[in-house]
Fold this sequence. Notes:
The complex is a heterodimer. By secondary structure, chain A is of the alpha+beta class. Chain A has helices spanning about 15-25, 30-50, 105-115; strands at about 1-5, 60-65, 70-80, 115-120, 125-135. In chain A, helix 2 (about 30-50) packs antiparallel against helix 3 (about 105-115). The two termini of chain A are about 25 Å apart. Helices cover about 40% and strands about 30% of the residues of chain B. In chain B, strands 1, 2, 3, 4, 5 and 6 form a 6-stranded mixed beta sheet that branches. The interface of A and B includes residues 32, 46, 102 and 112 of A.
Amino acid sequence: MKTLTFPGSYSSLVKIGEFVTQAAKSIGFDGFELYKIETAVDEACSNIIEHAYGQENIGDIVVSVVTDLEKITITLTDFGEPFDPKYVKQPDLDADLEVREDHGLGIYMMKQWMDVVIFDTNQEKNVLTLVKYLKD
Amino acid sequence: MEISKTQYKRCDVIKVEGRIDSASAPQLYEEFNKLLEENHFHIVFNMTDVSFISSAGLRVLISTQKNCKRFNRGELVLSNVPENIKAALDLAGFTALFKIFDSEVAAVGNF
């Protein structure tokens, strides 16, 4: 397992993306599959900063990556406010432009593009686990 | 993220190189808004050098499209959309909300 801690600011997003995609590449992810992982991690970390911490530079994001022959498991931990995705409304992707809401899209993309998305919250921390399998 | 702008007779082209994420999206939003403040509502967004777009970037596109289309005064159209980015637009249900052109010339010619 590789673990790195990043400051909870939007300028960390590029470095977090590089850290995770590097590990994904090492077990054979490439092209669009790699892009999906980068997107999910970016959305997750942006949510942590925006919702769990409420703004930038309040707390850290701990990123752990475990790889084996068939999958990558990414764990993102923060120490902000408890975050329950149940309360994030599902975006209506068929809504007309005028009434199109612009929130909820990040979680939706994460869930569509990763194989496993688990939010676990207790009083001390939020732990988000993302898993993606290598397809044969 | 680098932003470049070109003004044509009937429209403006904005081109971005790099990532559009939560860090850079506000800068892009500001560039679109500058055009709107100058009453330029016909805009082409050339995405050929966009390497990544997150939902923060998608939100900028939606809001700019809403502002452009208000009172039927204009439209934001997209051109040269890379495959990964197109997949993100598809997933978000955006392909129904934006005209997408294969080339900047075709997009500019649309206005």
